[in-house]
Amino acid sequence: MKSVEERSFDIEELKQYFFADRQPVEEFDLEAMRRHFDALLQRGAAR
Question: Superkingdom, according to UniProt (predicted)?
């Protein structure tokens, strides 16, 4: 198993990977993403 250090990643690289279709990448909004996932979790829990 790899150590955390070996698997370390750059948050900017992640943003570009996940939001490559969004320009510019600086528009990445962690708070909006958190609200989105909170809403999904609430919907899933309501089932």
Answer: Bacteria
Instruction: Tell me if the pTM is above 0.90.
Output: no
In whole angstroms, give the CA distance from residue 34 to residue 44.
15
Residue pair 12/25 in contact by the 8 Å Cβ criterion: yes
Instruction: Give Cβ neighbours of residue 28 (< 8 Å, ≥ 6 apart).
Output: 15, 19, 22
Residue that is written with structure tokens 């150590």 in the block = 3
Angstrom distance (rounded) from CA 25 to CA 21: 9
Domain boundaries of the chain, sorted by first residue: 11-46
